[in-house]
Design goal:
The chain contains one helix and eight strands. By secondary structure, it is mainly β. The strands form two sheets. Strands 3, 4, 6, 7 and 8 form a five-stranded antiparallel beta sheet that branches. Strand 1 and strand 2 form a beta hairpin. The longest helix has 16 residues. The radius of gyration is 21 Å and the shape is flat.
Length: 137
Protein backbone atom coordinates (compact mmCIF):
# COMPACT_ATOMS: atom_id res chain seq x y z
CA UNK A 1 0.00 0.00 0.00
CA UNK A 2 2.88 2.38 0.81
CA UNK A 3 4.37 1.75 -2.65
CA UNK A 4 1.13 2.79 -4.36
CA UNK A 5 0.89 5.98 -2.34
CA UNK A 6 4.53 6.86 -3.02
CA UNK A 7 4.11 6.08 -6.72
CA UNK A 8 1.00 8.25 -6.85
CA UNK A 9 2.80 11.16 -5.16
CA UNK A 10 5.75 10.85 -7.56
CA UNK A 11 3.41 10.81 -10.58
CA UNK A 12 1.61 13.93 -9.32
CA UNK A 13 4.91 15.75 -8.78
CA UNK A 14 6.24 14.80 -12.21
CA UNK A 15 3.03 15.80 -13.99
CA UNK A 16 2.92 19.11 -12.09
CA UNK A 17 6.42 19.96 -13.28
CA UNK A 18 5.65 19.31 -16.95
CA UNK A 19 5.84 22.42 -19.08
CA UNK A 20 3.28 22.70 -21.86
CA UNK A 21 4.07 24.63 -24.99
CA UNK A 22 1.26 26.77 -26.35
CA UNK A 23 1.03 28.10 -29.85
CA UNK A 24 0.42 31.81 -30.09
CA UNK A 25 -2.15 32.79 -32.68
CA UNK A 26 -0.49 34.51 -35.58
CA UNK A 27 -2.08 37.75 -36.60
CA UNK A 28 -2.33 41.44 -36.03
CA UNK A 29 -1.66 43.11 -32.69
CA UNK A 30 -1.81 46.65 -31.34
CA UNK A 31 1.19 48.46 -29.86
CA UNK A 32 0.94 49.88 -26.34
CA UNK A 33 0.25 53.54 -25.63
CA UNK A 34 3.36 55.71 -25.29
CA UNK A 35 4.45 58.31 -22.73
CA UNK A 36 1.75 57.57 -20.16
CA UNK A 37 1.82 60.34 -17.54
CA UNK A 38 -0.32 61.52 -14.63
CA UNK A 39 -0.70 65.04 -13.32
CA UNK A 40 -2.58 66.12 -10.19
CA UNK A 41 -5.52 68.45 -10.83
CA UNK A 42 -6.67 69.79 -7.48
CA UNK A 43 -6.91 67.39 -4.57
CA UNK A 44 -9.39 64.90 -5.96
CA UNK A 45 -8.54 64.49 -9.66
CA UNK A 46 -5.71 63.24 -11.83
CA UNK A 47 -5.23 64.02 -15.52
CA UNK A 48 -3.90 61.02 -17.41
CA UNK A 49 -2.23 61.67 -20.76
CA UNK A 50 -0.59 59.43 -23.35
CA UNK A 51 0.28 59.24 -27.02
CA UNK A 52 -1.05 56.81 -29.59
CA UNK A 53 1.78 55.21 -31.59
CA UNK A 54 2.09 56.00 -35.28
CA UNK A 55 2.68 52.36 -36.26
CA UNK A 56 -0.91 51.10 -36.15
CA UNK A 57 -1.31 48.12 -38.51
CA UNK A 58 -3.52 48.70 -41.56
CA UNK A 59 -5.50 45.56 -40.59
CA UNK A 60 -7.04 47.54 -37.68
CA UNK A 61 -10.04 49.84 -38.21
CA UNK A 62 -9.59 53.48 -37.26
CA UNK A 63 -10.37 55.39 -35.09
CA UNK A 64 -9.15 53.34 -32.15
CA UNK A 65 -10.66 53.32 -28.68
CA UNK A 66 -8.76 53.65 -25.41
CA UNK A 67 -9.67 51.36 -22.51
CA UNK A 68 -9.02 52.49 -18.92
CA UNK A 69 -9.21 50.23 -15.87
CA UNK A 70 -8.54 51.16 -12.25
CA UNK A 71 -7.77 48.42 -9.71
CA UNK A 72 -7.43 48.84 -5.94
CA UNK A 73 -4.59 46.69 -4.64
CA UNK A 74 -5.70 44.57 -1.68
CA UNK A 75 -2.65 42.33 -1.30
CA UNK A 76 0.33 40.97 -3.24
CA UNK A 77 -1.92 38.83 -5.45
CA UNK A 78 -5.34 40.42 -4.97
CA UNK A 79 -7.02 43.45 -6.45
CA UNK A 80 -10.52 44.81 -6.89
CA UNK A 81 -11.63 46.44 -10.12
CA UNK A 82 -12.94 49.87 -9.10
CA UNK A 83 -13.55 51.55 -12.46
CA UNK A 84 -13.40 50.79 -16.17
CA UNK A 85 -14.20 53.04 -19.10
CA UNK A 86 -13.79 53.01 -22.87
CA UNK A 87 -13.01 56.31 -24.60
CA UNK A 88 -13.90 56.73 -28.27
CA UNK A 89 -12.09 58.56 -31.09
CA UNK A 90 -8.43 57.96 -30.19
CA UNK A 91 -8.41 60.20 -27.12
CA UNK A 92 -5.04 61.14 -25.64
CA UNK A 93 -6.12 62.27 -22.17
CA UNK A 94 -8.69 61.60 -19.46
CA UNK A 95 -9.64 63.38 -16.24
CA UNK A 96 -10.00 60.80 -13.47
CA UNK A 97 -11.63 61.27 -10.05
CA UNK A 98 -9.43 59.67 -7.37
CA UNK A 99 -11.38 57.19 -5.21
CA UNK A 100 -12.07 58.36 -1.65
CA UNK A 101 -10.87 55.12 0.00
CA UNK A 102 -7.21 55.28 0.98
CA UNK A 103 -4.92 52.73 -0.62
CA UNK A 104 -2.88 51.94 -3.70
CA UNK A 105 -4.54 52.07 -7.12
CA UNK A 106 -3.20 50.88 -10.47
CA UNK A 107 -4.52 52.68 -13.54
CA UNK A 108 -4.11 50.61 -16.71
CA UNK A 109 -4.42 52.19 -20.18
CA UNK A 110 -4.82 49.98 -23.28
CA UNK A 111 -5.55 50.58 -26.94
CA UNK A 112 -8.65 48.84 -28.27
CA UNK A 113 -9.60 48.23 -31.89
CA UNK A 114 -11.32 45.86 -34.27
CA UNK A 115 -9.90 44.07 -37.26
CA UNK A 116 -10.93 45.09 -40.78
CA UNK A 117 -11.19 41.49 -41.92
CA UNK A 118 -13.85 39.51 -40.09
CA UNK A 119 -13.22 35.85 -39.20
CA UNK A 120 -16.06 33.92 -37.60
CA UNK A 121 -13.54 31.69 -35.79
CA UNK A 122 -11.78 34.52 -33.97
CA UNK A 123 -12.79 37.66 -32.14
CA UNK A 124 -12.38 40.87 -34.10
CA UNK A 125 -11.74 42.86 -30.90
CA UNK A 126 -8.05 43.48 -30.22
CA UNK A 127 -6.50 44.96 -27.04
CA UNK A 128 -2.91 46.09 -26.68
CA UNK A 129 -0.82 45.32 -23.66
CA UNK A 130 -1.46 47.84 -20.90
CA UNK A 131 0.65 50.63 -19.50
CA UNK A 132 0.19 51.24 -15.77
CA UNK A 133 0.42 54.22 -13.43
CA UNK A 134 0.38 53.71 -9.65
CA UNK A 135 -1.62 56.15 -7.50
CA UNK A 136 -1.31 56.10 -3.70
CA UNK A 137 -3.77 57.85 -1.49
Amino acid sequence: MKRYIIALIVMVIISACRKDEFDVKEGVSLPTVENLKSEAVGTSQVKLSWQIPQQIPSEIERPLKVFLEVNKIIGPTKHISVFSHTIEEEATSFLFDIPTDPGEYHVVVKLNGTTVQKDKNYSQIIFSLGQTIVLKK
